[in-house]
Every structure is written in C-alpha cells, then in structure tokens.
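I had to read the description of the data format several times before I understood it. Each protein is reduced to its one-letter sequence and a matching series of backbone shape codes. The format is easy to grasp once an entry is in front of the reader. For illustration, here is how one protein appears when written out as sequence plus structure tokens:
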Amino acid sequence: MRKIAASKFPSMTSLRCFETAARHLSFTHAAKELYMTQSAVGKQVALLESILDCNLFIRHKQRLELTPIGERFFHDTQDALNKVEESVLNVLAHSHAIATLKIVSHPTFCARWLIPALKGFSKANPNIHLDVHDQVGDFIHTDASELDVGFLHGHGVWPGMASIKLFDSHFVAVCTPELNPLPMSDPNCIDSVTLIQSRIRPHGWLDYFASANMSWEGVFAGPRFDSFYDVVHAAISGCGVALVPDIFVKEELQTGKLKLAWSHMLERNGAYYMVHPSNKSDVPHVKTLIEWIKQRF
C-alpha cells in the first residue's frame, strides 16, 4: 500500500471539522458542536480540501452540499473517527488491564447463555478486559483474524480452530399457553398454526417434521426473523409456534410464558462449541476463560 507523506496527512482537527460540518451540512452548526468559531471550522475544511486537492463541499449561499467524493469521504471519516474514539475509551476504561480478550458469539447465545456464564469473571480476573462482540453468520471464515475465543453451533470442525464441546443442541417447538395446536398426528395440524421461521435455520421446520417421519406442505411459510432472539419473542407475543434450541427457552418454559407445542424434539442437529485459534491454546488469558467456562459444567 502506498504511504502518504506526513505533509499530506490531514490533522484530526481538520477531519473532525469536516465530519461535523458534513453531518450538519452547516459550518455554523458544526462550530456550535465543536465550540469553535464558524470561520475556524471553514478554514480547517478548506485546509483539508487543499491537502486532498479536491472539493468536498458545494457551497451554496445558505447551505452546504457534499460532492460525490465528499459523500464517500464523509462515511470513511465517520468510521475512522468512531474507531479512534472507541480505542481511546477502551484505554481510559481498561488502562489497568494486562490483556484484552476478544470474544465473538451469535447474539441470542450471548444473551441467553454466555452473559450469565461470564458473571463474576471480571471480578475474579481484573487484569483481563472482556471485549464481547455479537455477530450473525459464520464469523470463523469472515472475522477470525483477531478472535481469541468464539462460541459456535456446528459439528466441531473449523479450519485453524481448536474446539471444545459444550452441550448438544436440541430443538423444541414452543408457543404461548393460549395457543392449542392440534396433535402432530392430525392431518390438519399444520393448518391450525403459524410456523415462525428463522433465517439462521431456514430448513429447521422441514428437518423437525422429517425427524418425526412426517411430510407436510407449507413448512417454509410464516413470518421470518434474523435471530433466535427475535423468534423467541415472536412466540411470546403469540405470533405462532417457534422452533428454537431448548437452552434459549428454559426460563420461559419454567415460568409458563411458553409451553411445548408438541413433545417431539429435534435432536441430531449439531452442538454448541467453544472455539479458539489453534495457535492461541497456550495464551494465558485464553486459557483462563476456557477454564472458567469449563467450571460451569
């Protein structure tokens, strides 16, 4: 990558002035937010345009308008400044920490299982800063470069990763107590309910009924949601019958918010694993978290 000469690198002040002015499309409003004068903001933006050798704004009499290249630069600048701000806040909040542990998990698993499992970890290990990220999809192949520990559903084999099985995944069909689906043996059963769909497991209902030796039309119809978290809450709201891992609805089943729509359970559908890069097996803070999670069983 071609490096930029120091004389061509914009100052943080110029970038902040440009981002604020672009967000408001006004030097006046930007000046108020930044506690600067309007002319000072304008001079910083003009300096930035001089360094970049292009116009970032079209200056109308009463307003500003971003040029096409200014629009692109605005979004890039926002991302960069947000990243800098996040890094500064991390240092201020965790300057005492010896190590930062980046954990990646699917959102519902994080909310329903991982967060309760991490209770007390920071107090017991004050020199380890937990940096937990929610991510949907196969993050092992898309964002594993800085991963320390991840939590995944699958069959335990991912390239470059060591995996530790946590527990099997059993899917159950749940609904509110007010719904009374017909028995699965009834030919009209599927017509009596709305099947809540999940984009994470698009073939879930097909697999569920197939495992019960049943073949029905319409198993892909119904409202579709991105996460199991949404699917669970759709069921609680009475939108229909949801098919979800049993660990995500244990509390709702115990408190009576939800009930089993049918007793049948989909069992052979992978398991939940804790994973980490194979080359980090001996990293102290990774080992500390692994042992902490293992003690939860």
Observations:
- The longest strand covers residues 161-168.
- The first helix runs from residue 12 to 24.
- The chain has a mean pLDDT of 86.
- The chain has three domains: 6-94, 99-169+271-294, 171-266.
